[in-house]
Specification:
single chain; alpha/beta; 8 strands; five-stranded mixed sheet; three-stranded mixed sheet
Length: about 220
């Protein structure tokens, strides 16, 4: 029997979804569609590069233009590149809301960071880590891209709460909620973990118990 698992952003969506949508999310996690997972690669890479200071906002704007103007071999690739360009434009509207006075560092591409919650392996993998002057991780940034399933403030706070729990697991000092940041790129919304996150974490644990039970029922 396979281990129950879900991505962090899908867990956030699950927290506020209808019963039918919850069932579909679990089914898609059991048998993920690879072509969907590949979307927004250019946006994720270049926005992360901007956040850590490797490229300027002018260069990021230019990348969006280049993505739109290039000729591609397939309609799928062209659509994906245009989605990434749209995402970059949306991100630039809120790029000034990111934390300052910290070291921002991209998560290596080969890192697969997970947090076990109530029997479910939640794939957290922040896009960017926030570090202090002592090179200690004190927070993280997670990007969310799909237009079809945007995060609401409520679902985004659940994502940020789980992100904080992940960062806290390996931290020696308490992690500030304001440094656990989720960016819903299509809506240009920046969401941080709530100060009072205990109730939300209990909700997440209950949801993961449900996901684990449904996963086992569908794969046994």
């Amino acid at each position: 029997m396979s281990v129950s698992k879900i991505s962090l952003n899908k867990l956030g969506e699950y927290m506020t979804a209808t019963p039918a949508r919850r069932r579909r999310i679990i089914e898609d996690q059991i048998a993920p569609k690879e072509f969907i997972a590949a979307r927004y690669a250019d946006a994720r890479e270049n926005i992360s590069n901007f956040i850590v200071g490797d490229i300027s906002d002018d260069r990021l704007e230019q990348i969006a233009i280049e993505l739109r103007n290039h000729t591609y071999d397939s309609t799928f690739i062209a659509q994906d590149k245009n989605l990434s360009a749209d995402a970059i434009d949306s991100f630039l509207e809120i790029s000034d809301q990111l934390p300052t006075d910290y070291k921002l560092e991209k998560t290596p591409a080969n890192v697969k960071a997970t947090l076990e919650i109530s029997g479910v392996d939640v794939s957290i993998r922040p896009d960017v880590y926030i570090k202090n002057d002592n090179d200690e991780v004190v927070g993280a940034i997670k990007l969310h891209f799909p237009k079809s399933n945007p995060l609401t403030v409520t679902s985004g706070e659940y994502v940020a709460t789980a992100l904080k729990a992940f960062v806290q697991e390996n931290a020696s000092t308490p992690i500030s909620p304001k440094l656990c940041i989720v960016i819903d790129v299509p809506s240009s919304t920046v969401i941080t973990a709530p100060k009072a996150g205990k109730k939300r974490m209990m909700d997440i644990q209950a949801a993961c118990e449900e996901i684990d039970a449904q996963w086992k029922a569908k794969t046994s």
